[in-house]
Design goal:
Layout: H1 6-14, H2 18-36, E1 39-49, H3 74-86, E2 91-96, H4 104-117, E3 121-125, H5 131-140, E4 144-146, H6 154-160, H7 171-180, E5 184-191, H8 198-210, E6 215-220, H9 246-259, H10 269-274, H11 279-284, E7 290-291, H12 298-301, H13 317-330, E8 334-335
Parallel strand pairs: 1-2, 1-7, 1-8, 2-3, 3-4, 4-5, 5-6
Helix pairs in contact: 1-8, 2-9, 3-4, 4-5, 8-9
The structure holds S-adenosylmethionine.
Length: about 375
């Protein structure tokens, strides 16, 4: 498939005609089918700690917020991994704020135990940790690492990520390092972060391609009222602001599928949050091939609110599993088995259903609340 040029990516990001967009989504869906098949992989997400040393201007976990925080015990994490196996998932994702209270050797022992006791692939998403820690966890058996670069624009990045003491944040360099350590690497961005323009988002998508990412997570920015970018009254966006709308997210997901055809792309919980009815399905019909159901124990979920109103937060893991499996089947797709990594795909063992959902027609977006940089 010929590479998309910068101008083509930009053109599609600015396109608003529903019938033209339907073609883009159909093209991405075809690329998804040709390169990663009909399987939807389920990754059980365990949010292991809400402590964070960072001050990201958009995130509900930022350390400046005074709120109850938690760090899960070894036994709770292992119980979550066992539940992932019982529910038929092939991967468990251990995510947290950037919490140096998660000690490297403590986590390495948990990773080794999960690898000995279960067939699960392990994805880590723990922020910017030190090289020695990342190496230790890889040697303990962790398979993948997720670290969104959030924006490829250095000025916007600096404006929304205050530096932590003398530590210089370079997530793109860290992703390259993670690759040399042998991890499958995942990154991504929020769509509609205040200050983001279509030019920037186009360059983000080109960076996904040049990093040859194995996983790309794309969701809408959702304003958190207790953060600098979500404070009430910081309303109305500047000129050229990308909206944090469903339609814009779907365009970015579809274009990402076209430039990274083999990557695993989740239909994100944030997308389901802005369209609780069928946002998840729209993601899967625009190039995505992964769901990440939350396995965090109920008492902790309310304390891991990176943005308010997170979809499905009140569902237990079993209900959520049934709901997602029904949604997958209703689309005529299959639930993937095995680890489902970019380099460890197993052909589907389930029988594909012939029932196939008519493609959705993009509707003009509802207006979204927008904010500008303070
Ligand atoms: N600490 C790890 C890190 O920084 O990569 C992982 C946890 S962090 C909460 C996971 C992701 O949540 C971030 O990469 C960011 O893209 C997303 N996120 C944070 N605040 C958000 C918001 N207000 N709206 C949408 N997504 C948000």
């Amino acid at each position: 498939m010929p590479r998309l040029t910068h101008e083509e990516i930009l053109h599609w990001l600015r396109e608003e005609d529903p019938s033209a967009l339907e073609q883009l989504f159909a093209r991405a869906d075809e690329a998804r089918r040709a390169h990663v098949g009909d399987d939807i992989h389920l990754r059980g997400l365990i949010e292991i700690s809400s402590y964070c040393v960072r001050q990201c201007h958009y995130c509900g976990l930022r350390s400046a917020r005074s709120m109850p925080r938690y760090r899960m015990s070894r036994e709770e994490i292992l119980a979550g991994a066992r539940q992932a196996v019982e529910l038929g998932f092939g991967t468990v994702v251990l995510q947290s704020g950037e919490d140096f209270g998660i000690e490297a050797e403590w986590l390495a022992e948990i990773i080794r135990t999960i690898k000995i006791e279960t067939p699960l692939a392990i994805t880590l998403s723990l922020g910017e940790r030190r090289s020695g820690e990342l190496r230790l966890w890889r040697e303990a058996g962790a398979d993948r690492y997720l670290l969104r670069f959030e924006t490829s624009d250095p000025a916007l990045y600096a404006a929304i990520h205050p530096q932590r003491g003398a530590v210089v944040s370079d997530r793109i360099a860290l992703l390259r390092e993670l690759r040399t350590l042998g991890y499958e690497i995942g990154s991504g961005v929020m769509v509609g972060i205040p200050g983001q323009t279509c030019e920037m988002l186009a360059r983000d998508i080109e960076l996904f391609e040049s990093l040859d990412l194995d996983m790309v997570g794309i969701g809408p920015f959702l304003a958190h009222p207790d953060t600098p970018l979500g404070a009430p009254g910081v309303a109305t966006a500047g000129p050229g602001q990308v909206p944090s709308s469903e339609w814009m997210v779907l365009k970015a997901v579809a274009l990402t599928r076209l430039v990274c055809p083999e990557a695993n792309l989740p239909s994100t919980t944030a997308l389901a949050t802005i369209n609780t009815l069928d946002g998840r399905e729209h993601g899967l019909q625009s190039g995505a091939n992964v769901f990440m159901p939350v396995l965090t124990p109920a008492p902790y979920r309310q304390m891991y609110q990176i943005y308010p109103g997170k979809a499905c937060i009140d569902e237990d893991a079993t209900q959520c599993n049934h709901c997602l499996r029904d949604r997958i089947e209703n689309l005529g797709r299959t639930v993937g088995t095995g680890p489902g990594g970019r380099f460890s795909r197993t052909p589907s063992q389930s029988v594909p259903t012939l029932r196939s959902q008519p493609r959705f027609t993009p509707q003009k977006d509802r207006p979204s609340p927008l904010v500008v940089l303070p």
